Amino acid sequence: MRLNNPAMKRILVIHGPNLHLLGTREPGIYGTATLSSINAHLKKLAAKRKVRLSVMQSNVEGAIVDAIGKARGRFDAILINPAAYTHTSVAIRDALSAVALPAVEVHLSNTHTREEFRHTSLISPVVKGTIMGFGPHSYYLGLEALIELLS
Ligand code: DQA
User: Fold this and answer.
1) Which domain holds residue 93?
2) 57 in contact with ligand 1, CB cutoff 6 A
3) Is the pTM here over 0.85, yes or no?
4) Residue of 30, 85, 139, 140 marked catalytic
5) Is residue 133 assigned to a domain?
6) Does some domain include residue 3?
């Protein structure tokens, strides 16, 4: 397999604010897996399924908006956990709408079982689907879903 096979689909993985703290952040809600262990597993799955992954994490809304804005032409799809911005960010929603790449939204926790302010996602209406409540498996299922969508 060539490393830079242009036929390989490219997926951008975006982790939103505070997800770099996974492992120690509210483990009763988010579990004990670290972000780097989740990323390592995603990379393994991607290699098996012959897709290319780029992974980023940012606590800055504008950096996420920039990354999405630059994704067209560079990536075929987006896997995103917008974290707290899920519930607040018109800018991230508009960026996803603007680039019109297939996207899947994931959450570790089931936000509908939590505080009321987490029940609304501004992102869900502009993605292909949302997977939540399965801890790190939400990401793995989300990646599988995107690969199916692209195939
Ligand atoms: C989260 C849920 C959000 O409500 C929260 O702000 C997060 C993480 C999740 O993965 O469960 O930071 O997106």
Assistant:
1) 9-150
2) no
3) yes
4) 30
5) yes
6) no
2 belongs to a structural domain = no
CATH number for 88 = 3.40.50.9100
Our count of domains for the chain comes to 1
CB distance 109 to ligand 1 below 6 Å = yes
* List 15, 85, 107, 140, catalytic entry: 107
pLDDT tens-digit profile, the chain (151 residues): 445 576 899 999 999 999 999 999 999 999 999 999 999 999 999 999 999 999 999 999 999 999 999 999 999 999 999 999 999 999 999 999 999 999 999 999 999 999 999 999 999 999 999 999 999 999 999 999 999 999 9
Nearest to 102 by CA among 75, 136, 62, 139: 75
| Ligand 1 contact, 86 CB (< 6 A) | yes
The answer to whether position 61 is within a domain reads yes
107 a catalytic residue: yes
Residue 62 tokens, joined:
């504008």
Give me ligand 1 centre to Cα 49, in Å.
Answer: 27
**Is 41 a pocket residue for ligand 1 (Cβ < 6 Å)?**
no
Residue 51: count of CB within 10 angstroms of its CB: 19
Name which of 148, 149, 150, 144 is nearest 42 in CA terms: 144
CA distance 57 to 40: 14
